[in-house]
Design goal:
Layout lengths: L1 E6 L3 H16 L3 E2 L8 E7 L3 H17 L6 E7 L2 H7 L5 E2 L8 H6 L16 H9 L10 E5 L1 E2 L10 H4 L4 E2 L2 H13 L4 E5 L17 H13 L6 E5 L8 H9 L6 E3 L7 H6 L6 H14 L4 E8 L6 H14 L3 E6 L17 H26 L3 E9 L5 E6 L4 E5 L9 E9 L4 E8 L5
Parallel strand pairs: 1-2, 1-3, 3-4, 4-5, 6-9, 9-10, 11-12, 12-13, 16-18
Antiparallel strand pairs: 7-8, 14-15, 14-17, 15-16, 17-18
Helix pairs in contact: 7-8, 8-9, 9-11, 12-13
């Protein structure tokens, strides 16, 4: 019995896929890269983006055709809107919420697949179910990079976003489980660990008095790094500007293992658009957080998310976003053209910015980003940076990696044993979104 899993969307879905694989492995199924060989095929969907949903329909159409000549069971989970779920129930054999993952063996057994006795999870509420889900040990996709979910769901209800309707309200994972997982990964020699959540810096707020805060969680993890001889970097994504406290920034500055890279989504540089987006922060509040980052962690790189062409966005409001991008000097911005999503509050609003204008605004912001990120990269030339080698590069005879600040670096080497290691690279040239260098030496491998 072989299985194949297609994962769409964000890093949270990627992390969830590692737990799905663990459950299927525990049933005795074997992973295959070739989906045509699989007897069980699953997909982790993303209702946040229409392109991802379109891919789901394309995949299931092919899989259902195969059922005429092959025994095949299909399932779907991930971020799914109620409207999409209703449609998927008619197309997939099994549709389940990710928090119900521990019940997957029971679900599959109904289709004649012999599995070990499943755990009884009847009459559990969503918060209890997600706790059982977190107890499933992940099958990490990498030997040096791992993702740790610390929270599920969202309470922010941004008007453009469907996540509260796909993943539910915020639930914080028990901190002792998170800390234990970090310790385990450090002991195994992992170099990059990312804490995941829809709003990581609101961690613990749903369990006031029962759980530590996000700043305290980072401090606990920082102490693990301080007590270890092993070199590793801890990232987190995504925080919300409303909950970004000075205390969190102070903790990051205090510990070497807490990566000096901050992903802080702004979405728009105009206050009226932010109000319409229900972002619950102003440009002034956002600026205060960035000022604190520049003061306390001057070496930190800054990433963000931006939406162009949101419902009713005027040319003046777009220009305010351009001003914000230049003011905050982002190293990277994930820029998306607005598209309506069923379930989000803005779905009923007019999508009144012409597609041609959206594309023009996307291109202008991308040019602005290239200028500011390119200037930062040029300043790296001549300096030596530790780089986590991630893979071979598209350029033949080169390896590719990232600095602690997640700046992409390529350097000449055919030594594949360096993949997963931290090496020192002297930067020799730069472009807008990456740099090139020469290998200096392999950083001391300890821990």
């Amino acid at each position: 019995m072989k299985y194949h899993l297609v994962t769409l969307g964000c890093q949270m879905n990627q992390s969830d896929s590692e737990r799905v694989k663990r459950v299927l492995d525990g049933m005795g199924a074997q992973w295959t890269d070739n989906e045509s060989e699989a007897n069980i095929i699953g997909i982790l969907a993303c209702s946040v983006r229409q392109k991802a949903i379109d891919k789901v329909y394309s995949k299931i159409a092919l899989w259902n055709k195969r059922k005429a000549s092959q025994n095949l069971i299909t399932f779907i989970s991930g971020c799914i809107l109620p409207a999409d779920k209703t449609k998927f129930l008619k197309l997939f054999d099994i549709v389940f919420a990710m928090r119900e993952l521990p019940q997957l063996p029971q679900m599959l057994s109904q289709y004649g697949i012999t599995t070990p006795a499943g755990l009884e999870r009847d009459n559990l509420n969503p918060k209890e179910e997600i706790n059982f889900f977190w107890q499933v040990k992940p099958k990490y996709n990498s030997a040096f990079e791992a993702f740790i979910p610390i929270q599920n769901g969202c309470d922010k209800f941004c008007s453009f976003c469907a996540v509260p309707y796909t993943r539910g309200r915020e639930v914080s994972r028990p901190s002792h489980e998170i800390i234990d997982e970090v310790k385990n990964l450090v002991e195994k020699g992992y170099k990059s660990i990312t804490l995941l959540g829809q709003n990581v810096n609101s961690y613990g707020l749903d369990k006031k008095g029962e759980e530590i805060t996000f700043a305290q969680l980072l401090d606990e993890i920082g102490q693990i790094g301080a007590a270890s001889n092993h070199r590793f970097w801890v990232y987190f994504t995504s925080p919300h500007p409303r909950d970004m406290s000075r205390e969190v920034i102070e903790v990051i500055a205090r510990y070497d293992c807490l990566a000096k890279q901050i992903h802080l989504p702004i979405q728009s540089g105009d206050d009226k658009v932010l109000i319409k987006m229900n972002r619950k922060h102003s440009v002034k509040k956002y600026r205060e957080s960035v000022d604190a980052i520049r003061e306390l962690i001057p070496q930190a790189t800054l990433f963000t998310d931006i939406i162009v062409g949101f419902s009713g966005e005027t040319e003046e409001q777009f220009q305010n976003t351009r001003k914000a991008l230049k003011e905050f000097q982002y190293n990277m911005a994930y820029i998306a053209m607005y598209s309506k999503r069923p379930g989000a509050a803005s779905y009923s609003w007019p999508d009144d910015v012409d597609l041609k204008i959206k594309k023009e605004r996307l291109a202008l912001l991308s040019e602005d980003l290239g200028e500011v990120s390119g200037a930062y990269n040029e300043a790296m030339v001549g300096q030596v940076f530790p780089v986590l080698v991630r893979d071979t590069d598209r350029k033949s005879g080169y390896l590719s990696g990232q600095t602690e600040g997640k700046i992409t670096v390529r350097f000449e080497s055919d030594n594949r044993t360096l993949i997963g290691q931290i090496v020192d690279v002297k930067i020799t040239s730069a472009s807008n979104f990456s740099v090139e260098g020469e290998l200096v030496e392999v950083a001391a491998k300890v821990g």
